[in-house]
Write a structure and sequence with these properties.
ABC_transporter-like_CS; ATP hydrolysis activity; ABC-2 type transport system ATP-binding protein; 35% helix; 261 residues; ATP-binding; P-loop_NTPase; alpha/beta; four-stranded antiparallel sheet; 10 strands; Rossmann fold; 2 domains; binds adenosine-5'-triphosphate
């Protein structure tokens, strides 16, 4: 389904502007995400991360700008673009009366993917949930629900995987398991775009990150390069807590200490 050459990004966002009434929430945002890459969108509350994801998903119409997914313009070819992306849903979006096996089969059929009992069991085993096919979603822990949700959102092998704060509220073990699943997609050539408030997560799994503040991208690079670049930045040095500059110090140095509403 990809219309592009091998070296083209899977997600290409160019000069995106999003407005809610008179308020401009996203201002001239441009970035791209390649296959085999985990890209993190970081920013304080209200920075414009979810709005950007919503525009990529086609849920809201930007004022201007261009988004292509696997070479398909999301405005001109929304169905093709959508077929090439997997969006992680909240566990609460799943039908509570169905079993996990039934939910997986339901979503697979929506995407035109045929899945037998054995394949479903194999897929569940790959996320350490071999016995979950007959259970209801409410019977799973938060971490298990997130893994099922990721499995469902990628059932059609989308080139682009979109994850909005995928590990919020998970314990360290569940978070690690989800990171491993996210890395599995990256290692298999998918492009992953995630938002997170965890600088630890960004450093641990993201190959590149963009820091967005008040709707604008103010930095974009690998976590290591961002730290390196700001080692002697006076704004960053002012907020260093443990002597050694961390990604969180760089983030606070660049976005300020004021709490956002
Ligand atoms: N439907 C809406 N109507 C009006 N303003 C909105 C709407 N959705 C978001 N906003 C505003 O747009 C700005 C960006 O919001 P957005 O949800 O994209 O931020 P975010 O970076 O995802 O924040 P958070 O980290 O809190 O989830 C905020 O100021 C928010 O109040």
């Amino acid at each position: 389904m990809n219309q592009q050459g091998d070296n083209a990004p899977i997600l290409d966002v160019k000069a995106l502007h999003i407005r809610y009434g008179a308020f401009e929430a996203v201002k001239d945002v441009s970035f791209d995400v390649y296959g085999g890459e985990i890209f993190g969108l970081l920013g304080p509350n209200g920075a414009g991360k979810t709005s950007t994801l919503s525009a990529i998903e086609g849920l809201l119409k930007p004022v201007s700008g261009q988004i292509t997914v696997a070479g398909f313009n999301t405005r001109e070819k929304p169905l093709h673009a959508r077929a090439n992306m997997g969006v992680q849903l909240q566990a609460t979006s799943f039908q509570p009366e169905l079993t996990i096996g039934e939910i997986i089969r339901l979503f697979a059929s929506i995407y035109g993917v045929e899945l037998g009992e054995d394949t479903i069991r194999e897929k569940l085993a790959a996320i350490n949930l071999e016995d979950a096919a007959g259970k209801k979603i409410a019977q799973l822990s938060g971490g298990q629900q997130q893994r099922v949700s990721l499995l469902i959102s990628t059932i059609h092998h989308p080139q682009l995987v979109l994850l909005d704060e995928p590990t919020t509220g998970l314990d360290p073990q569940s978070r690690r398991q989800l990171w491993e699943r996210i890395e599995y997609f990256r290692n298999n050539g998918h492009a992953v775009l995630l938002t997170t408030h965890s600088m630890e997560e960004a450093e641990a799994v993201c190959d590149r990150i963009a820091i967005i503040d008040h709707g604008r991208i103010i930095a974009i690079d690998t976590p290591a390069a961002l730290i390196e670049k700001h080692l002697h930045d006076p704004e960053v040095l002012k907020v260093v807590r443990k002597g050694k500059v961390t990604l969180e110090d760089v983030f606070i140095g660049l976005t300020g200490t004021a709490v956002r509403s």
